[in-house]
Every structure is written in structure tokens, then in C-alpha cells.
Amino acid sequence: CTGQGECDGYSGVYLCGDDGGVKCSADYSGGEETCNRLDDNCDGVTDEVCRELIYRFVGGTELDRDHILSRFPFPPLPNYQYEGVAFSIYTDELDGLTQFDAFSRQSVSDHIYTIDSAEKASLQADPDWLTQAILGYVGASAAENGTIPLFRLAKPALSDHIYTTDAAEVSSLISSGYVLEGTAAWVWPVQ
User: Fold this and answer.
1) Tens digit of each residue's pLDDT (9 = 90 or more) over 119-138
2) Sheet with 148-155, edge to edge strand ranges
3) Were both Cys, which of 12, 33, 89, 179 would link to 25 (CB 3.0–4.6 Å)?
């Protein structure tokens, strides 16, 4: 067998793994996982110890719905309900990752999260939008190791943007009047 991750190219034999499954002995030659965008411990997952979970919340009214992403598992605003863990992202800037910024709208309850520099400039120039924070760092393309697409949808009648990695949820949202705006970023699935 051949190792994976940083153990790729090493030959080994199949052994019983710690989880009772079969594992290539070459994969035991990996080191401790560090935040360097490599699979240091040769488990097939890159930098799993370096990313944090992002949580999704919903609030507002039927006429002014709002979805918020947060690095914290408790509602960021009063009367917002926890919807679940959405995905994971890096919290530290590493080479090749892109800053994922959060913006909030003042006139209605709406939040936009973006990596697009032109969109960021447009939102920063609009007095109705406030820069909130750097949510974290994400992949800018599908080529990023282990990423999945984070879809952005909008429902103009509600001034609401929603973000999801779930293709079935995308279909359901489209059938309820949301419009798919595209892929906002490339994120990592929940481990």
C-alpha cells in the first residue's frame, strides 16, 4: 500500500488501525498535524485541528427574515434561533487562503459574507452597509484541498441572504422563491 497526505510515496503494509479499520502502515509515519495546509499526520484530512466551526442562525420576521453566520454557538442577536453547524473555516490567515468578510445592512435585517474584493468595495462605499468583521479565511476555488462549495442565495422580497453547503437545501430554497447568486466561497465540511 502507499501512504496518503505527506506520507504519499511511502510504501507500507496493511495493518489494523486504531479505529478497528484497516490502515496502511506508511500512514503511521506522519507527524503531528500543524496549520500549514498539509496533511502532516497522514490521515487523509488537511489541517483538521486548525479550523473552527461556523454556526448559522435565523431571526427577524416573516417580512424581514435574516440569516447570520457566527464563529460562536450562541445567538449573536436577541430573538435569533440556532439552525445548526454550517461548515468550518480557518481563523488564521495562511498563504493561498482568502479573507471572508461579514457585512450587515442598517435599513433592514440582512447580512452578506463575501471574498470578492469588488463587492467588498461596493458595500464599504454604501452607507447602508457596515463592515462587521473578518469571519475567517476560506478557499477561493474548488482546487483547495477538501473544500465544498458554500452557496449564496437571496430572496429580494425579504432582503435576505442565506448561505448553505447543502445542495438539497439549495433546491428547497429556490422552490420557495430564493435566487441562487452563486458560490460565495469554498469551505470545509464539518468533521
Assistant:
1) 999 999 999 999 999 999 99
2) 160-164, 148-155, 179-187
3) 12
Rounded Cα distance, 31 and 22, in Å: 19
Model confidence band, residue 90 (pLDDT cutoffs 50, 70, 90): very high
* Strands (E) located in the chain: 14-16, 22-24, 51-61, 64-70, 81-90, 98-105, 110-114, 129-138, 148-155, 160-164, 179-187
- Nearest-Å Rg of the Cα atoms of the chain is 20
How many CB atoms are located within 10 Å of the residue 50 CB? 18
- Total-model pTM: 0.83
Instruction: Give the other-Cβ count within 10 Å of 188's Cβ.
Output: 26
Question: CA dihedral defined by 105, 110, 113, 116, rounded to 10 degrees?
Answer: -60
